Structures are given as C-alpha cells and as structure tokens.
Amino acid sequence: MERRLLITVGDDKDSLYGVRFVGSFFKSKADLRLTLLHVAPRFESMDARESMLLHRIDEMLSEIYDKKGREALEMSRRILLHEGFFDSQIESRLILKHYGMIEDILGEARRGKCHAVVLGRRGHSIFERVFYPSFSREMMELEVDIPLWICKRPARELENVLLCVDGSDASQRIVDHVVSMLEKEVRHRITLLHVDEGTGRNVKEIMESSRERLRGSGIPEHRIRSLVIRARDAGKAIWREAAANAYAVVAVGRHGTADENAAERGFMSSKGMELLEMLNKPALWVSR
C-alpha cells in the first residue's frame, strides 16, 4: 500500500521543518507519495470602484507571494531529492486561498487521499484555531478527519516512536496509523506507553490489546517495548519520557477516554494541548 503525505510549505525557506522531518525520518521511501502544498494569500479587489492604483498593488502583492511560494516549493523538492526521494514521488501544488487556509489544506489532503497532513512551525500556527477549544463553535465543529503531524523543530538524529495508549477509540486509531507508517521502517522501534493516573482502568488489558494490535498488523515483537508510568499529570509524564529517550515521534489520540463523551471540545483534549506546547524536537502525531 502506498503511503501518501501532504506536506504544507510556508514561504520561509529557512523553516521547512515538515519537509526536513519527512526527508530524514523515512528510510524505506519507495512507496511514499508526497504532495508539497503552498496556499498563497489572495489579493484581489472585490470593489470595482477602487482605484487602478489599488488594483496594481493587489497584482504586485500576488506576484511577490506567488514567487516566494514557488521558491519554497522548489527548495522543498530539492531537500527531498537530496534525502533520496525520486522526482516522480513528489507533486508540488501552489493554490490561492479559497475557502480558508485550514479548509483548503484539508480539501487538498482529501483530494489526494492522503494518510496524514504534515505541518511545520508555520502550519502549526495556522491550525491553532482547530487545536484550541476556545475558538468559535464553527471551528470546533470543523471535521478534521485526517491525522496531523506537527513538526515544530525536528532533529534528524532522533529515532523511534513513543506511542501513547489509553484504551480509547482515538488511541486505537493512532495505533493503526503508526502501524501503517512504520511497518517497513525497521530502524524505528515503538514504545507503547500508558500513563496510569489512578483512574482504575485495566492497564494490563490496555497494553496487551495495543501490543496485539501492533503484532497482528505486521510489527515484529523485537520492535515493540511496553512501558507503564504512574503519574498524576499524563502530559508531563509523556514529555519527560520523550526527552529522556530522544524519540523522533510522540503519537497520541486526539481525545482520551475521559474526553470521548464531552459535548463541547476542540480537535484535542486539554492534556493533548499541554503536550503540544511542551514538545519541541519530537514530531507530534495526532489521530483523528
């Protein structure tokens, strides 16, 4: 099965963190298909009464941002080629903002049947409206049905994945997502982590079920490690483990068992948001 990723590209050529993460993290590249996407701002007057000078300013701004976007896309392509991808594996797309930045990115990901949307530092700030539950109901109800990868400042020397599980539906989905991405990436080991906050859950059942889900999908036993940490604050416990063992990826479900029945929520739980703020070098993978 092909692994298809949409990588958002900003106009800052020095901050292509999502591109750099994908280039260095994957060693088995043959079945990867990448779409590089730059969404350019739209500068066009909606008022025919405006002066020709204002129309010309709009045209000049469009040309400037178009050029910057194309240069960033070309730089991204060169980075990926240097990392071992073939030109035929990479599609570059520059589109004008139409429905809104988030909606346009998700629309392109669905069009390409992508398995994840990869966000660099700029992309993460764009999606803050989805992550934070304090924004409008319209944004909270936006259907983000694709896993998101947030790459704030990844380090290429990092390896392995910290896969956080708690028995929730979202937890099971992130397990499946990690399997689909890592089955062929033999250099990366997977640590199954459950943070026991004293809620009375059946920890043994959660860990065995998740482990069997990995094994049954093709991950061999020697690549799987199990870890249970007892702590009151799950986010800080995950952060400490990620920092202590230099994981390349921390993978979480967007909501844990305590959040699944919440009537009002954003894309991620409050604990997930805390983790997002704390992590810097590891990429954060969040399931739908």
Give structural notes.
This protein has 288 residues and is α/β, with parallel strands linked by helices. It has 2 domains: 3-150, 3-Layer(aba) Sandwich (Rossmann fold); 159-282, HUPs (Rossmann fold). It has 10 helices and 10 strands. The protein has a 10-stranded mixed sheet, with helices on both faces.
CATH domain fold name of the largest domain: Rossmann fold
Backbone structural class: alpha/beta
SS elements, strand count: 10
**Shape call:** elongated
- Biggest sheet: strand arrangement: 3-2-1-4-5-10-9-6-7-8
The whole-number mean of residue pLDDT values reads 84
Please bin the fraction of helical residues: 25-40%
Total discrete domains:
2
What's the helix count? 10
**For the record, what CATH class of the largest domain applies?**
Alpha Beta
Distance between the termini: 20 Å
* Uncertain parts: 133-141, 261-267
Q: Major sheet, described briefly?
A: 10 strands, mixed
